[in-house]
Amino acid sequence: MAKYADDEELRHVESNAIRSAVEAWSKSAPGVAKWTKHTVGNHIKMERWVAEADVDGFNLAYALMPGSFEDIISDLFPVLRKRGLLWEGYAVPGGTYRENLRGEKGAARPPPDHPAAKFHWKAE
User: Fold this and answer.
1) What residue segments make up the domains of the chain, in order of their start?
2) pLDDT tens, position by position, 16-40
3) Dihedral of alpha carbons 9, 18, 24, 52, sign
4) Model confidence, pTM
5) Is 67 helix (H, G, I), strand (E, B) or coil?
6) Which of 14, 22, 51, 103 is least enclosed by beta carbons within 10 angstroms?
7) Is 10 exposed, middle or buried (0-12, 13-18, 19+ CB in 10 A)?
8) Which DSSP category does 59 fall into?
9) Which letter does DSSP use for residue 123 in this model?
10) Cis geometry, peptide bond prior to residue 66 (ω within 30 degrees of 0)
């Protein structure tokens, strides 16, 4: 949405994905005269969900690979960090998901007694 002006009506943009999402939101809030980036942010209120419902996270879909994820890293993460909403207290900073899940540096693979230990995919 960065390419759209802050006061631009999002129901008329060329992106089908954005238009479709805004149309769905506008059905749940028919009194909104103009759907801008600010209006969308106020409507979704993801931060409020975290504060009031104690949700653990959100699944963010992508439109472009890897562009959508690059946008999340460059645009969303800094805002979340600034607000103190991005958890950074990992057991193994810079480690893999498995290392952080087990809390052990170097434990990037299942332990030898785990059924999955015999399976290992390698990129060619």
Assistant:
1) 1-44, 59-109
2) 888 898 998 888 888 889 999 888 8
3) negative
4) 0.56
5) helix
6) 14
7) buried
8) P
9) -
10) yes
